[in-house]
Design goal:
The chain is of the alpha/beta class and 463 residues long. It has 17 helices and 13 strands. The strands form three sheets. A six-stranded mixed sheet has the order 4-5-13-10-11-12, with helices on both faces. Strands 8-7-6-9 form a four-stranded parallel sheet, with helices on both faces. The N and C termini lie far apart (51 Å). The structure holds ligand F0G.
């Protein structure tokens, strides 16, 4: 499809360079493992031209809005629509796109009432083509992989990255290699990778073990690394923040809460906010906070026990398998954005995650367990006085409800915490459970069930 793109005089994409986040070394090309050739730390993408000749903020805003009327593939993408703030492909028609981004910003009226925060929103990245936020980064990084001439792309994953990578590889005519921890990812995500034709390897290790192996593999085999260590991924994921601010008419919310796993997403969103302020697109920064599961709380411990100076790794364990990560690769980038935006780093329990997930589900939108840490985290940050009820809050929901149907079914059937240390505590969640009923196929049985449910009331009612 080659519709003409909207013409916008004076706007163009800038040349990008790579900069080491630790020693500041600059380069025009990245090494195979996307690590600094001098000190082996992570790279970030910078746009040197922005300091001298920044694109005009108002021109950018009106051009991005105008592109929503265009039928060209890259304008229809909620990522490439913001291409002035992204690395430039040699030929932008060569972007591998599935119309990613363009995700809704929902109000959460019931959660707003129960938390006492009237201006509460959810940016639902689970509404992307493969049902997670990963697609926004994948369209950029996979496109650069193809442009660089690679045949194979690869990732280590807790499930969503692999589903997304497999889809974009398939669309772009590339082959994909998936390394996932055996038995520790949801079959829903695994089935996506299979359907999109990935070579899928379930390794007898955890996510951290898969990522370690991948980092060695890319130095030995001609495969292109598509984890969020790859800075092109983070450039694409920046567009979440651009799109969010556009949806809020460029009025920054007071708080943005993001789940933290490998810590690429928080880093990308933070980078976008800092760049937006630098370019005059927003006047002030929201506080960007990261929420982790208690059982996978490496960043929380890094901040509390080491003041953000060295990584405190953990042996990760949580039913929110997407964020079951103990050795997050982008921890330094995350510390930087927490400090730059004044955000908090908090952890929530398995019970709190399950409760928050059910509450978001009861809003009619739903999300996967890892996303629900944001609502659970909000409740804690409110209690601590870090978030004030009169402030506006955006929760980033990273994955779709259907990404982990086992968790939802076990929750509603009352099996989620059976035989675990949380079993007795989980009794408090009973009012949120809606187990399926098996009835005789008679009118009477259904009417009786209806009447009973009506009498017992509903925590879902608007009250
Ligand atoms: N939420 C979901 C649904 C995820 O899949 C992930 C990460 C995160 C949050 C955390 O984001 O790693 O950028 O801090 N999933 C990766 C994967 C690790 O392989 O799918 P992060």
């Amino acid at each position: 499809m080659s519709h003409p793109t909207t013409s916008e005089p004076g706007l163009r994409q800038s040349t990008h360079r790579f900069r080491c986040i630790a020693c500041g070394d600059l380069s025009d090309a990245a090494s195979l493992d996307f690590r600094c050739s001098r000190c082996a730390d992570l790279l970030e993408i910078i746009y040197p031209a922005w300091t001298s000749a920044s694109p005009a903020a108002e021109d950018l805003k009106s051009s991005w809005r105008q592109r929503r009327l265009s039928n060209s593939a890259i304008d229809l993408s909620g990522v490439w629509r913001f291409r002035e703030l992204l690395p430039a492909l040699q030929n932008s028609d060569q972007a591998i796109t599935l119309r990613e981004g363009n995700t809704p910003l929902y109000e959460l009226p019931q959660c707003a009432r129960s938390t006492g925060v009237p201006r509460l929103y959810a940016k639902h990245q689970g509404m992307n083509p493969t049902s997670s936020f990963k697609d926004t980064g994948m369209t950029v990084a996979a496109s650069f992989a193809r442009e660089a001439g690679y045949r194979w792309v690869a990732c280590a994953s807790t499930g969503n990255t692999s589903a997304s990578m497999a889809a974009y590889a398939a669309r772009g005519g590339l082959r994909s290699l998936v390394l996932v921890p055996e038995g520790k990812i949801s079959w829903s995500k695994l089935s996506q990778a299979l359907d999109y034709g990935a070579l899928t390897c379930q390794l007898r290790t955890d996510f951290d073990g898969c990522l370690r192996l991948l980092q060695q593999l890319v130095l030995r085999a001609p495969v292109y690394q598509l984890n969020s260590i790859n800075p092109f991924r983070l450039e694409g994921q920046k567009t979440l923040a651009l799109e969010l601010l556009e949806q809020l008419d460029w009025q920054p919310p007071d708080h943005i809460l993001v789940p933290g796993g490998n810590l690429g997403n928080i880093s990308a969103i933070g980078k976008a906010l800092l760049e937006m302020r630098g370019l005059g697109l927003i006047a002030r920064l929201p506080k960007l906070s990261v929420i982790q599961a208690e059982g996978a709380n490496a960043l929380v411990r890094t901040m509390r026990e080491a003041g953000g100076k060295r990584l405190v790794s953990v042996q990760a364990e949580t039913r929110a398998t997407a964020i079951r990560i103990g050795n997050p690769a982008s921890w330094k980038k995350a510390v930087h954005v927490l400090e730059a935006t004044g955000g908090a780093c908090e952890q929530v329990s398995e019970i709190e995650i399950a409760q928050a997930k059910a509450e978001i589900g009861a809003e009619g939108i739903g999300c996967e367990p890892a996303s629900a840490v944001t609502l659970a985290g909000l409740k804690k940050l409110l209690k601590q006085g870090f978030v004030k009820p009169e402030e506006s809050v955006v929760l980033v929901l990273t994955g779709n409800l259907l990404k982990d149907p086992d968790f939802t079914m076990e929750f509603h059937r009352g099996d989620l915490f059976r035989g675990t240390a949380h079993e007795s505590e989980s009794a408090a969640l009973k009012p949120l459970r809606r187990p399926p009923m098996v009835l005789d196929a008679t009118l009477e049985a259904v009417i009786q069930a209806l009447e009973q449910a009506d009498k017992s009331g509903s925590t879902h009612s608007n009250g």
